[in-house]
């Protein structure tokens, strides 16, 4: 499994952002190998972390090449003050579990 952590410093969102964001989420969900996502908001800094769960790098590459995702990557300065993406391979995961909040999200 692979985790893609998208950390962002939000700027101003407009209607076009929300339309594109919804289209990108729909594109991710349509890809075989997309396992879900979780979002966290830091109340102190206003940073947002979105962690996407992927079954394979092939699925992640397919998502990265999607036209809506490509368009959003070109226009990030319109909506974010800063961002970073980290791709991590999960080698092991363990713990007591979180029931319906288990990762990857169901």
Automatic annotation (TrEMBL):
Pfam families linked: Monooxy_af470-like
Record-annotated ABM domain positions: 1-90
InterPro entries: ABM_dom (IPR007138), Dimeric_a/b-barrel (IPR011008), Monooxy_af470 (IPR025444)
PROSITE patterns assigned: ABM
Membrane-crossing residue ranges in chain numbering: none
Gene3D superfamilies, A to Z: 3.30.70.100
Highest taxon listed in the record's lineage: Archaea
Protein's name in the database: DUF4188 family protein
Organism, scientific name: Halobacterium hubeiense
Lineage: Archaea, Methanobacteriati, Methanobacteriota, Stenosarchaea group, Halobacteria
């Amino acid at each position: 499994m692979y985790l893609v952590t998208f950390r962002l410093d939000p700027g101003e969102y407009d209607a076009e952002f929300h339309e594109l964001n919804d289209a990108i989420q729909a594109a991710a969900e349509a890809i075989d190998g997309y396992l879900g996502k979780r979002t966290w908001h830091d109340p102190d800094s206003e940073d947002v972390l979105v962690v996407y769960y992927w079954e394979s790098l092939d699925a992640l590459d397919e998502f990265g090449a999607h036209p809506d995702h490509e368009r959003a990557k070109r226009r990030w300065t319109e909506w974010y003050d800063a961002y970073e993406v980290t791709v991590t391979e999960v080698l092991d995961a363990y713990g007591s579990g979180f029931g319906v909040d288990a990762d990857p999200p169901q």
